[in-house]
Amino acid sequence: MNWNLLAETFALVFLAELGDKTQLATLTMAASGKSRLLVFLGAAGALVTTSAIAVLLGEGIARAVPEVWIKRLAGVAFVVLGTRFLLERG
User: Fold this and answer.
1) Are 34 and 26 in contact (CB under 8 A)?
2) Whether the model pTM is above 0.85
3) Contact by Cβ (8 Å): 39, 30
4) What's the CA gap between 35 and 33, in Å, rounded?
5) Deepest in the core among 30, 65, 83, 86, taking most CB within 10 A?
6) Contact between 7 and 15 (Cβ < 8 Å)
């Protein structure tokens, strides 16, 4: 088992999810006084499902597109989104 890959993936997803809309929505639902366990299970299930879809799509894309182009496209997408968020008037 590649423990480095596991740790890198965990760290990246963990940091990316901190403070995002999904976490804030989950926080709001948990604060509503309803079952925190059910909110946790629902949120965890949704994250697992979206991650499974991403892995399957990523595997399919990797078969058709060289890895270097996937990394470049992801890098450009992050720069574009980051720039957009920085310039956005709020």
Assistant:
1) no
2) no
3) yes
4) 7
5) 30
6) no
Q: How many CB atoms lie within 10 A of CB 26?
A: 20
Which residue type is seen at 49? T
- Measured between alpha carbons, how far is residue 27 from residues 5, 12, 46, 67 in Å? 29, 21, 15, 36
Distances (CA, A) of 35 to 9, 20, 30: 29, 22, 7
Neighbours of 18 (CB within 10 A): 8
- One-letter amino acid identity for 70? I
| Residue-wise pLDDT tens digits, 11-29 | 988 888 887 888 888 989 9
Classify residue 32 as exposed, middle or buried by CB count within 10 Å of its CB (0-12, 13-18, 19+).
exposed
What residue ranges do the domains of the chain occupy?
Answer: 3-64
